[in-house]
Fold each of these.
Amino acid sequence: MSAKFDAVYRRSIEDPAGFWAEAAKGIDWIQPWERVLDDRNPPFYRWFSGAKLNTCWNCLDRHVAAGRGEQIALIHDSPVTQTVKRFSYRALRDAVARFAGALVNQGVGKGDRVIIYMPMVPEALIAMLACARLGAIHSVVFGGFAPKELKSRIDDAKPKVVVTASCGIEVSRIIAYKPLLDAAIEQAEYKPETCIVLQRPMEEAKLITGRDIDWNDAVAAAQPADCVPVAATDPLYILYTSGTTGRPKGVVRDNGGHAVALHWSMENIYGIKPGETWFTASDVGWVVGHSYIVYAPLLKGCTTILYEGKPVGTPDAGAFWRVLSEHKVPAMFTAPTAFRAIRRDDPNGELLKKYDLSGFRALFLAGERSDPPTLEWAEQLLKVPVIDHWWQTETGWSIAANCLGIELLPVKHGSPTRPVPGWTLQVLDETGHPAAPGEIGNLCGKLPLPPGTFPTLWNDDARFVDSYLARFPGYYQTSDAGLIDEDGYVYVMARTDDIINVAGHRLSTGGMEEVLASHPDVAECAVIGVHDSLKGQVPVGFLVLKAGVDRPSAKIVSEVVQLVRDRIGPVAAFKTATVVARLPKTRSGKILRGTMQKIADGQEYAMPATIDDPAILGEIDDALQDIGYAKK
Ligand code: COA
Ligand code: AMP
């Protein structure tokens, strides 16, 4: 039943160098590698060391050279502006080369950082690829983050240039991006020399003389720039993701291993061939957007869809079906939350009847746990395989998946199937010993990890080792808890750290607690992720007020809600908090967040043996019931 997959998987583990060298034939190299896997400096493993390539060449120029110049590379489908714009491979290459020239005019060269803070417009993708063309390192920041988050990324990445747009559009609301960038730069210690601003007609931004340049002027003054050869091990991008504190982690992606792994994944995991159209409904600000809106489909010579809209509300819950039928898409990728939103608005799938999805072959879901009811609903509606797969910003592509392009394995609902080729996954118990099949523990990847996974954190090798490699020597700690069953199927249950997953977006409750604690009336606080039928999880805050504070609780709650929105951004979806007299703790003073979460979700829980005062759990239960949680 799985012979074909087993053979491919076994080869990847027994002979990783041979396996990935063969996959590397799918990429154009300027100089061949000296070592496929460079293991001279563990735990800092490197792939394809000694080789040179250019990722932008591999995404664009080589396809033009091979006769795909007139094929559509990019479709910008934007229901929020009611436009659909297409770029051929030739047109996209020319636009990217020209914008790369504009960056060169601003002094950007190999190794320089460029922050991209943009909505879902073609220019975001053009700016990313232009950086890749020059060997500059892009760092895309998701638009839903507040200025303070942007500021911390500016201070860490120290970009020579920031590329932004005047505004984004959230369904029908215009979100002015430029003032958010201005505020971030105002707060930052490091000041970028230049900001290039795409003016959108819905709301034009005020430019700051001497610092800001209009995108069109920058491009008009530029000559097309050529691809710059870079080392396979040079960074392609930095993508910041939530860490266990408010300080985000700068996940680094290299050029060579990334190109090989992503190119390989399009056909082997997703079953997509060159020339086919591919739709990932995510945002370029997330890793899913980097890998499967931009790099993988273009590396493979596909047509990629950049969708500026929502699954519902732009205009209705048939939005994805329209995109799939209008652009004849054989497979798509999104987060389960999008399907929960569609199901909520159109439970019987009436809107699907308006569209022809006869060429549609598979739906891929990731970013959070796929709840079986939503997955089954999608299977019954679409009548194609619905494939849950598991990955992280750090890994850049799947850790576990049902590799449709190799062989579709039987689906077990609730499991993202088996580790993909290249990954040796092990469940380890708290003492670092392998757990038995079916036993829950820490999901860990045996080092070295396959190509495409992160080689380190930006300017922070020590944090890379401390956060991911130190606890279980020889392994990468995913910080996901789960199990592997007798058939080798992986089940991902929960994070082992303070990360929660809200509408497929990864957020740190620790980061939110830092914001709540900064309120002058708050003595102590805790934030937990509680179950939400649409977003999977939403954060809920608990506040213990300082002695003597007699302002109304509701007022303080609304102030902290606003504070999180201002400091982290609307993406945190922090809307609920409650004032309590005290927090439940262990005798050593550790807040019992896990137990609080179980109470909130109405789950059974065991009284923690180390609890200091069990009566407090009753108080938490009452407080949660008052705000609509802890239903029995
Ligand atoms: N720029 C500015 N604001 C943004 C934004 C952006 N790029 N993206 C989201 N926001 C805002 C939203 O408008 C919302 O603001 P509000 O509190 O004023 O309403 C807030 O951030 C929270 O956004 P979200 O959690 O996404 O909720 P939503 O109600 O807008 O949409 C879904 C819910 C399920 C439709 C949406 O999250 C979705 O489509 N998710 C699936 C796809 C996806 O993005 N996956 C991510 C990784 S695969
Ligand atoms: P991100 O880095 O934003 O991609 O988030 C990664 C985290 O999302 C993982 O560590 C998991 O906790 C969760 N996640 C992603 N995909 C899945 C999945 N298919 N099943 C369960 N959890 C998932």
Amino acid sequence: MLQGEYGEAKALAMKLLVAVGDIFEAKRMIKVKSVQVSGVSYKTIGEAGLEFLEDLCRKGAEATVKTTLNPAGMDLTEWRRMRVPSDFAQRQLRIISAFKSMRMDTTCTCIPYFVGNRPRFSESVAWAESSAISFANSVLGARTNREGGPTALASSITGRTPLHGLHLDENRRPTHIIQVQSELHNDLDFSLLGYALGRKLGSCVPFITGTSMERNFDYLKTLGASMATSGAIALYHIGGITAESRLIKESDLNFLERISVGRSELRFVKEELTSAEGPRHVCLGCPHCSKEELGTVAKLVDGRRLQRKLWCFTSRETCEEAEKLGYVSAIEGAGGMVVKDTCMVVSPLEKIGVNQVLTNSCKAAHYLPSLSRVRVALAPLEECVRFAVEGS
Ligand code: F3S
């Protein structure tokens, strides 16, 4: 591949992976089962990204393993309903058609593991969405490093990734014990905990203990998303809950540094991330809403008339499933909107008149002020929905 025997695109992709492998002193390349590509929204990659992708197509690039995409900058079919400007939409559609012609699956979501790209235990993949990376490593026990958009693309084209980092057993062991000294009551508590840990620890493999936790995928996805936002944590363990926790022995934990996190830290994070005083718009789905979350929203709004705008971001496939269960008609019947293919962070909210948002996601609260000049307030999902129903 490197010598161009399989075409220009593969040679370029392999060159990049070899360079990365050299930096990390990888001994060899390994095969990957799937890829999650980031850098799909026109808002984040701009004109240069669009040109790069179209050029890659001209060079004959094609996915060689299952490849799914991160959220785009708009609902790909209902962007007019979102009031996305037409020039943005045209460019976004060109990006999607470039990915399509590279035979990538244009499911645009950060929860690929719920919609057909679900790696098995110990399987190596190359994913480039930090929240999905955390879920794949921690909850599923698959193996991926924190890939960037270009390296994930290169892995898709070659089917390979350099063997280093979290592909190796020795780097997956816990490095710190986190003693949580407060009960976690809802989705926002998990999000706040993740953000507090990411900021405190930067990059490490925490073993979280001390609070009674259930194996709730929605809580785990938001916990991991936050850790990967304020820090660079790509793998965490929770005894009895995450995939590799059963392989960790008591003796593995003996000499690790212990760190306590309590309610005051969670309160501090919430205050720090709150910038809105009077949010008018409720946005849910960072990471994308699961079918269960849409079900909770539907139950709370069914038969009501919303006083505030309510947008729920999710994947197209999850939306279709939720449609069959009547969730979408309940939410939209109340005046809300289920938005597919995009998310509140990578869509051009600032261009569509959204400037103060109530959400349940620390990741969104972290990025929205700088990326979209949108101010944010935080509340658990159920409180967010109640706010949309009651208006205050
Ligand atoms: Fe997903 Fe967008 Fe949040 S990609 S994790 S919904 S920033």
